[in-house]
Structures
1.
Amino acid sequence: MLLSLRLLRRIARELPRYGKLTYCLYRDPRVPQRNKIALAAAMALILNPVVDVPLRLPIFGEMDAVALTVLAIRVFVEKAPKDVVAEHQEQISLGTSVFDQDLRNGRQGLQARLNDLRGRGRLVVARARRNTI
């Protein structure tokens, strides 16, 4: 039991980093297309399984999906070119990765849209409707 708690804690710590790394590698044209297709197919099967037998077991069904997701991502990262992985890991640690740039652009776009709605008065109307309901 202690081993499984350590493993879960380690996965929880590494999951955000692996998520960013996977996103960056998936967007990188230097990673072979077949690897990207294999990851997409694995994720599609994990999220929409053909056979739902493990999901009938209360806890094991969800843990099975999590374990398969971690395995699919790990294989994807291991099959990517090592120099590309090292480059993206460095960019992630510096906060200059594709993921970080896309996140900043998304926040700026959302902020611009909110400011536009505030300028038109639509955001105020939406808030007023929520307060009266």
2.
Amino acid sequence: MKKRNDNLKRVIVDFKKLTPEILALLVEKYPDGYDEDQIISFRNASNEIIEAVEVTTADTKYLVKVSKKLAITMENYDEDDYDDFSSNDPDAIQDPEIEIESDDSDDDSDGDDVDDVADDSDSDEEDDLE
């Protein structure tokens, strides 16, 4: 017996091609975001591993590639932001601003403090050895 989803068109969607309609479906299906067990992994034609989440319409099964941009866009979703766009306009979804985390939050622009600390510890060790 065939499943009703067997005849659906299958489309892989990258964030750059995400439309307001697909974004709305994703937010509806995953209102609290998606978990690891909801991510589908597969190899594309170039044999690269792709991770995606699935959302289905009446005639199409979309596999939307998982990315940090997708997660942030879903978190900040507001349907009013897309009122001025067609539901299938990929230009409606803008790249979110992603903050780059730095390991050197106390980084000094001239770097003198780091050198001073290293110099002080070196001189203490020399004193102990004498």
3.
Amino acid sequence: MKYLSAALLSVSLSSGAAFAGGTTEAAVGGALGGVLGSVVGEHLGGSTGAAIGAGVGGAAGSVAGADKRSRTEAAIGGGLGAAGGNVVGQRVSGSSGGLIGAALGGAAGGALGNSYGDDDDDRRYRGRDQDRHYHGHPGKGHYKHKWHKKYRH
């Protein structure tokens, strides 16, 4: 039953974001990775393995769907969100709650991480683009004050 619910959740999440890009893809990747990692981790190591598997799967899924320049942030957000969601979901309603929590946490964490990475890139390149259009003083005054060693004796 757990595998059937994980498969249905995976199909429903991936079909909803087929036409979206960037942040939505990172969210869907984090949700799918968190659920699948949680299922495999629970099979191998119980509830602790489920939390570790959800974290690793959420990070990997978020990276797969994130933009090129914000993969690190998406991986951190997806991994932490999926692992935390799994732990909280298991406390609330057992292993099926852990799957739902891993999906929601991985989706939220991957989307927030990707969005944060995009904002950080915009701030980083904004000053560089403005400096590129500045060519100095409009007159020739700045050429007169250069020191040329080859003319000194």
